[in-house]
Write a structure and sequence with these properties.
Blueprint (H helix, E strand, L loop, with lengths): L1 H73 L5 E14 L11 E16 L2 E16 L5 E16 L4 E11 L4 E2 L10 E3 L5 E11 L5 E14 L3 H5 L13 E19 L2 E11 L13 E13 L2 E11 L5 E4 L3 E6 L3 E13 L1
Antiparallel strand pairs: 1-2, 1-16, 2-3, 3-4, 4-5, 5-8, 6-7, 8-9, 9-10, 10-11, 11-12, 12-13, 13-16, 14-15
Length: 355
């Protein structure tokens, strides 16, 4: 009788262990499902909070834009931009027992630029004035000028599209003071230029292409060029107006003009570049062979800044005008003039200031 009871006890123990294992497993699975359910509920809650936060941020962004727009509307519209620069450059050469030759000299050159530009709605108005005057004193020679320029430009435009403007353009070029022919003897040295002798005025209407704020390409099929020589003695030399024109003091030409300008205040750090190329063709010239000639005027200035008030600049100017005569060989053939490409280069180091 004891053996069956023992067998029943063993059986009962095994059965109990199985029940415990099933119960533990069931509790574990239930706990996992309960934890997952809790996590899903938390995720849904956090997602709802995130949506509310995003909506709040959108509202704040919209409110910020409205406030900025209101502030901008309260501020006066900046229609004008003005500024310029001025520089004073010095150059001195001193020689003592210098075997390669040369003369002692000292020079000073003043450069200045002013601009005033207007822009509002579809209208723009650009104004620019370049001025330069320089003097040089070589040992054994009298004081003379080595730079003299007045260049006034104005251009009015109305927007035709994103990159094109209808425009009217005018430019006046002359000099400040008398210029002499130093190849002639001092006692017979003639004055060959003066204020408004010559002066060149260009007045045109056309279209202005501006792909960005640095480049401007202006084309005019209706361009007038007017030459003034407001000094009878200079006019009589016929240096600036050809003999076939009856009036030696004034000449008008009508043709086409292209003006291309590139201006970058900072090509690289502390270096600015401004270059302008103008081409003019007088397609109504009475002298038909001259209609194939193109007047070229190309000016470039490079500004370099070394310190706040100290810098250097390089200026180049190339001119070709079939109607302007210059001396071909002053030493061997004095008085003989002809058409030549003119080129001037001025480099200076000194004080400079931008405003």
């Amino acid at each position: 009788m004891q053996l069956p009871c023992r067998q029943f006890s063993i059986f009962n123990t095994k059965f109990t262990m199985r029940i415990i294992k099933i119960t533990v497993f069931t509790l574990f699975v239930s706990s996992s499902f309960y934890t997952n359910a809790q996590n899903e509920a938390a995720i849904v809650e956090k997602e709802a909070e995130l949506k509310k936060l995003v909506a709040s941020m959108d509202s704040l962004t919209k409110l910020k834009g409205n406030i900025e727009g209101a502030i901008k509307a309260l501020k006066p519209v900046q229609k004008w931009q003005t500024g310029g620069f001025q520089s004073l450059n010095f150059n001195q050469v001193g020689l003592n027992n210098w075997s390669k030759g040369g003369v002692n000299s000292i020079s000073i050159t003043a450069l200045g630029n002013l601009f005033a530009n207007y822009k509002f709605n579809n209208w723009s108005w650009e104004n620019n004035l370049d001025m330069a005057y320089g003097l040089i004193k070589n040992e054994g020679e009298e004081l003379r000028k080595n730079e003299d320029k007045i260049d006034l430009m104005t251009k009015v435009g109305r927007r035709a599209s994103k990159r094109f403007n209808w425009a009217a353009f005018a430019r006046l070029e002359t000099q400040f003071a008398e210029g002499f022919d130093f190849s002639a003897p001092e006692e017979d040295r003639p004055v060959i230029s003066n204020f408004f002798a010559p002066a060149y005025l260009k007045a045109t209407a056309g279209i202005d292409y501006k792909p960005d704020d640095k480049i401007s390409i202006y084309i005019s099929p209706f361009a007038g060029k007017f030459t003034f020589v407001n000094d009878d003695s200079i006019a009589a030399m016929r240096l600036y107006i050809p003999d076939e024109v009856e009036n030696p003091n004034f000449r008008s030409e009508f043709g086409a003009m292209l003006s291309a300008t590139y201006q970058n205040k900072e090509v690289i750090k502390n270096l600015g570049l401004r270059s302008r190329l103008e081409l003019f063709n007088n397609y109504t010239d009475p002298n038909r062979p001259n209609r194939k000639n193109i007047d070229v005027d190309w000016q470039t200035i490079i500004d370099m800044k070394f310190a706040k008030y100290f810098g250097a600049n390089l200026f180049t100017h190339l001119i070709y005008d079939h109607d302007t005569k210059v001396e071909i060989d002053p030493e061997n053939q004095p008085g003989r003039t002809g058409v030549r490409t003119q080129f001037k280069e001025v480099f200076g180091v000194g004080f400079s200031y931008k405003f």
